[in-house]
Structures are given as structure tokens and as C-alpha cells.
Design a protein that fits this description.
By secondary structure, the chain is mainly α. It contains three helices and no strands. The radius of gyration is 17 Å and the shape is elongated.
């Protein structure tokens, strides 16, 4: 497969994630949209690594690092969302205004 196909799929995934982050108000949906955007970046890293330096696995290593960071981000994000839900009984970010004065 040519590199451009991977880039198109990655762009579509990133666009879906970006739309989810910008248009949604549910905190869980926004968290999943961020994960979709990170996976789009991972796809780019692996595709470029495969086509530019096929014998070196640097792109795959960066992708593994991003997956580890994303897993930690999901753990922290879900903990924050659970705390918000316990206090407000909703995960709608419009109702989350406890940091405002």
C-alpha cells in the first residue's frame, strides 16, 4: 500500500477526533476523541517509519511511548470524570464550573 493511503486514514481519524473534541459536551466522549487523535498520530509515526527507514523501528517505539502516555492519560481522565460524576451526577462539561469564581 502506498504511504498516502495511511496518511488519508490518519487524517480522517484525526478529523473525527477533532470534531468530537470540539462539538461534544460529554467528558467521556471528549476523552475518547482525544484517544482517536492520538491513534491517528501513531498511525502516521509507524507509516513514516516503515517507508522512510524500514530497518529501524524508531516510529514503532514512538508509537509505543504514545500508547503508554495515552493509557496513563485515560486512567487520570476517567478518575477525574468519575469524581465529577459523583459530585454533579452528570458528565456534561457545561455543568462543570466549580473552578469559576
Amino acid at each position: 500500500m502506498p504511504l498516502s493511503w495511511y496518511l488519508v486514514v490518519s487524517a480522517v481519524l484525526f478529523g473525527i477526533g477533532l470534531v468530537g473534541v470540539l462539538l461534544r459536551q460529554n467528558a467521556v466522549t471528549i476523552l475518547f476523541s482525544v484517544e482517536i487523535m492520538l491513534n491517528a498520530a501513531n498511525l502516521n509515526l509507524v507509516a513514516f517509519s516503515r517507508y522512510i527507514t524500514p530497518n529501524v523501528i524508531s516510529g514503532q517505539m514512538f508509537a509505543l511511548f504514545i500508547i503508554a502516555v495515552a493509557a496513563a492519560e485515560v486512567a487520570v481522565g476517567l478518575a477525574i470524570i468519575l469524581t465529577i460524576y459523583r459530585n454533579l451526577h452528570s458528565v456534561n462539561l457545561d455543568r462543570f464550573n466549580i473552578f469559576k469564581w
